[in-house]
Write a structure and sequence with these properties.
The chain is mainly α. It contains 3 helices and 2 strands; from the N terminus they run E-E-H-H-H. The protein folds into 2 domains: 1-33, no CATH class; 46-81.
Length: 92
């Protein structure tokens, strides 16, 4: 039966010497792979999240700009279209 881990940092990890560790030892090993431990992990995750958020915001800004241009063109087209011709619409 394979043990389920709630935290991926606790899953089994193979050390350079071939030993396999799991649980808290695996967590500590993985955190120790970073020069400044959790501080580096947190900084990396927050930087990545901020970059993705800014990219999404930029994409939304660009999409909004395109939609606004299309909308303005449609409004101009509607304004140029004659809705009714008074001479032809007179009731005789």
């Amino acid at each position: 039966m394979t043990k389920k881990y709630k935290d991926s940092f606790c899953t089994p990890a193979e050390l350079p010497d071939g030993r396999v560790i799991a649980g808290g030892a695996a967590r500590n090993y993985r955190i120790g792979q970073y020069e400044h431990g959790l501080d580096d992990i947190i900084q990396e995750v927050t930087r990545d999240a901020a970059e993705r958020a800014f990219a999404r915001a930029e994409a939304l800004r660009e999409t909004t700009a395109v939609l606004n241009r299309v909308s303005r063109k449609k409004v101009q087209k509607v304004r140029q279209t004659t809705v009714c011709d008074d001479e032809e619409d007179e009731i005789l």
